[in-house]
Amino acid sequence: MACQVMLAPGTLEGVSPIMRALAASVVRGLLPYPDLVRRWRVRKAARRLATREPWPTDDATTATDVARLALLRLLWLQKQTRRAVRGRHREAAALLGRSSLEACILALYCLHSPDVVARLKTEHLRASSKLLAFLDRAEVVPHEVIKEALSALGSPATGVPTIPQMAERIDTETSGSAVSELYERLYVPASTYFVHPNPASLLRHVNPDQTLTERPSDPWTRRSPVRLADACVGLVAGAIAHTDGVPNELFVAYAEAHHARTMTPMVVMTAKGLTRSRRMSQLLDAVRDALDLRRYLAGPANNDPREVREARVRAMYAKVVDPDLPPDALKPVYDYLVNRLIDDWADDKASSADVA
User: Fold this and answer.
1) Is the pTM of this model over 0.85?
2) Is 137 found in the same domain as 257?
3) Are residues 332 and 185 in the same domain?
């Protein structure tokens, strides 16, 4: 664990409300959320939006058609993710949840990128070339012949952008940041912990006591993957409904409810690290230290110079930083947060004085 407790700048005046909000978020993510009737309604309405029969020819396929096809896949992934969660196949559920988010981002990108069909055709050509590469290595069909055959279907010039590029394009078109936030908060950690072989995923097989285990630790809550799959269905169905000019309130409410219950793996890993590395009494001590600092900044700090206030804040952070880390491991972040907190405190006091 990089840090046991990290105080957000400018939040000391509202510790209790923030703690309540955090606790509510954790409870939402852990508890079941029975919405069987609404899920049936959402799936039935979304299935109607995904209908496009007969499927058009390549030249007649539009970006919205591709989005409908992605929605159809999302409905299937939602069902498979729920089955995996029910069977407690956690690794499979996490992979399916990540696939849902990837399909969701592509579908939303299609609705905001008219040239996506041509780009997808190009990507298909590239994929076909890679899929047939084994024929050349097996000396069945030379690579040049495969390349010539595929060239008759088009030129692989510009394919679809990467997932983060698609997320950024969607947010630019919608003047928001929600999709990039989904990518950073859920897609990246799911890829890191479950898909790619790297230190983060391999260390899941190392227990806190340094023994090895075949069964890896789980950096995600059991229900989060299916909440993510549910949210993706609602998000894409709502966007397609909006494009079609039909009511989308059912989908939007469904997406928001399930997104609010999807915990990021980083929060889960942090919570597990806290419980492993420190006893409950130590955690309570850290909370008491934070409350003492809050009381200090609310009154006595007014009469102290900045150096004294800064030393008091640094002492608080020194108690909660992981002792197993090298002394300078978090120094840049540590220094930034201390200075930011003191600066925000000074700005708040100046604003209060101006109002008075």
Assistant:
1) no
2) yes
3) no
